[in-house]
From TrEMBL:
Residues 62-119 form the Peptidoglycan binding-like domain. InterPro entries: Peptidase_M15A_C, Peptidoglycan-bd-like, PGBD-like_sf, PGBDSf, Zn_M74/Hedgehog-like. Residues 1-19 form the signal peptide. This is Muramoyl-pentapeptide carboxypeptidase. It comes from Streptomyces griseus subsp. griseus (strain JCM 4626 / CBS 651.72 / NBRC 13350 / KCC S-0626 / ISP 5235). GO terms for molecular function: carboxypeptidase activity. Residues 132-246 form the Peptidase M15A C-terminal domain. Pfam families: Peptidase_M15_3, PG_binding_1. Keywords: Carboxypeptidase, Hydrolase, Protease, Signal.
Length: 260
């Protein structure tokens, strides 16, 4: 992980769909259907090298700007939940925005405007990763995200959501560094380390965490609040030396030594 300054160079993110299949493209210029009463573009004055929002987004809004917002608030779905990254600003997205706003001392009205976007700009780097995590940490298998159970673009996009969940978890745990020992694996990398045949590592959804200053159990317990549908830790076979967290469909939590 790292702490990095926010840059303001011109760039854009090429995104991919965050489900197990399909792709989508993210633009540096948001295309959204705002709800009635949305503010003008002038209400958000800070340009950002990764992605720049304009106006406000609220329940009823839709489009790419909403999808980009959902990625950034993916770590605030509420205990045991996971928000859809689908570009539709519904009640779950509103609640996640409210939790994000409350976490950073903003007015928690569930409406994403200048203050919310400027906080996100502070938290992200020029490649759209959160400032405390990197693509390199989430892929120690290869350089191009290929060879998994989904396309390279989808695996990389899933890893981006995982990083934003970890960023939320890090903040909730006092902004202490979280050690990431690995993430995406190709099928061959997964086989080489004896990974499960259906491992979520091969989809880009997963990360294996070191104890750090928090300890394995504290990490596993905190992960329940930040959009991770799979949590494996001490007491689960093969997981006494790390905490495994992942997104994706379904839910399976098991860290018996941690009360999970």
């Amino acid at each position: 992980m790292r702490s990095r300054p926010i840059g303001f160079l011109l760039s854009a993110l090429a995104g991919a769909a965050l489900a197990f299949g399909g792709t989508a493209t993210a633009s540096a210029h948001p295309s959204a259907t705002p709800a009635p009463g949305s503010a003008s573009a002038g209400d958000v004055g800070t340009a950002d090298a990764c992605y720049t929002w304009s106006g406000t987004l609220q329940e009823g809004s839709s489009g790419e700007a909403v999808r980009q917002l959902q990625i950034r608030v993916a770590g605030y779905p509420g205990t045991g939940n996971q928000i859809a990254i689908d570009g539709a600003f519904g009640p779950a997205t509103k609640a996640a925005v409210q939790r994000f706003q409350a976490a950073y001392g903003l007015a928690a009205d569930g409406i994403a405007g200048a203050q919310t976007f400027n906080k996100i700009y502070q938290l992200q780097d020029d490649d759209c990763t959160p400032v405390n995590f990197t693509y390199a940490e989430l892929n120690r298998c290869n350089s191009d995200w290929s060879g998994g159970k989904v396309s390279a673009g989808t695996a990389r996009a899933n890893a981006l959501v995982t990083m934003w969940k970890l960023q939320a978890m890090r903040h909730a745990m006092g902004d202490r560094p979280i050690t990431v020992n690995g993430g995406f694996r190709s099928v061959s990398c997964n086989s080489a380390v004896g990974g499960a045949a259906n491992s979520r590592h091969m989809y880009g959804h997963a990360a294996d965490l070191g104890a750090g200053s928090q300890g394995f159990c504290a990490l596993a317990q905190a992960a329940r609040n930040h959009g991770f549908t799979e949590i494996l830790g001490p007491g689960y076979p093969g997981h006494n030396d790390h905490t495994h967290v992942a997104g994706g469909s379904g839910r399976f939590w098991s860290a018996p030594s941690c009360g999970i």
